[in-house]
Amino acid sequence: MTSIDQITRHGSPPALERRKRDGASEPSLEGAGVWLVIPCYKVTGHIERVIAKTPAWIDGIVCVDDCCPDKSGDYIERTVTDPRVVVLRLPKNQGVGGATLAGYREAAGRGAQVLVKVDGDDQMDLSYIPHLVAPILLGEADYTKGNRFTSLSHLKQMPSIRIFGNAALSFAAKVSTGYWNIFDPTNGFTAIEAQVAKLVMEKRVSRRFFFETDLLYHLGTLRAVVRDVPMPSRYADEVSNLRISAIVGPFALKHLRNFAQRVLGQYFVRDFNAASLELVAGLFALLFGVGYTASYLLTRVPGQAASAGVVMAAALPVILGAQLLLQAMNFDVLNVPNRPIHPYLRTVARMDEEAGA
């Protein structure tokens, strides 16, 4: 097994370099530079089991003590003997997003190639890590995430209120992020390629419970490829720190903000295409029709029937506007990123290293 010291000194795992020299076409999990990042906050009752279940081919484990009142970092150092474990302590609580990004930075600095984020509450089945990592190693995706909604059997353990809430959040996330091909956006079992993670770390990603969805939005601005991985839900005796009533309003506003920023940036700043024209014309026609109808209703003589011309002037722009907006939406659905960016990023990083050598 590749040690942490080897990765730190050489930058990438020896097995990975050996496969590159030998021209091997099939990726291997052993020595692929896969690291776990585990945000730790009030999980001392579970974290030891999570680390014990970590597969032997994982090269390193970064446990991020997010200023935990239970002193998770001290507990891990006291009870866990796995040499792959690195404890990172944050001086101030930054939420799940801040802890995850800090863990990404630490693991990437130690030579990690693929970063797998796992919660410390033992909800996640670590046997699915290969399913998350494989699309990245094969060059088919930049970011992968779990999806508990691919089968009815996967939802048996999920409470009904969570099923409804996740379905609503999933549709909102599709609209705001542009990833119409993904579902279950709040699923925290994820994997990301290290070069892509470095770009994400430069962005203003939400640090708390909106982290996973906001990360998808920022990945969309990079045109990164995201893939869902089917997996069942697991619930035990963990206690959630999330209060639904406290996040509904803020989440809605953040989705609206991201949607507006995405449409403006994607269709009017970085590009101008057919969807841009459809959006402008559709909004204009819809607003004109609604405005004309409101004006007529406010000024009409009581009891006087509207003429055919008035009806057409009111209805036709609304119908046309709705059709144009639906066509723009269809364009957006088909515009999901489909070419991974991390092979390009790795090539550029290697060229920069060679130029600086």
Automatic annotation (TrEMBL):
<protein>
    <submittedName>
        <fullName>Glycosyltransferase family 2 protein</fullName>
    </submittedName>
</protein>
<keyword id="KW-1133">Transmembrane helix</keyword>
<feature type="transmembrane region" description="Helical">
    <location>
        <begin position="279"/>
        <end position="298"/>
    </location>
</feature>
<dbReference type="Pfam" id="PF00535">
    <property type="entry name" value="Glycos_transf_2"/>
</dbReference>
<dbReference type="InterPro" id="IPR029044">
    <property type="entry name" value="Nucleotide-diphossugar_trans"/>
</dbReference>
<feature type="domain" description="Glycosyltransferase 2-like">
    <location>
        <begin position="36"/>
        <end position="196"/>
    </location>
</feature>
<keyword id="KW-0808">Transferase</keyword>
<dbReference type="InterPro" id="IPR050256">
    <property type="entry name" value="Glycosyltransferase_2"/>
</dbReference>
<dbReference type="GO" id="GO:0016740">
    <property type="term" value="F:transferase activity"/>
</dbReference>
<dbReference type="InterPro" id="IPR001173">
    <property type="entry name" value="Glyco_trans_2-like"/>
</dbReference>
<feature type="region of interest" description="Disordered">
    <location>
        <begin position="1"/>
        <end position="27"/>
    </location>
</feature>
<keyword id="KW-0472">Membrane</keyword>
<keyword id="KW-0812">Transmembrane</keyword>
<feature type="transmembrane region" description="Helical">
    <location>
        <begin position="305"/>
        <end position="326"/>
    </location>
</feature>
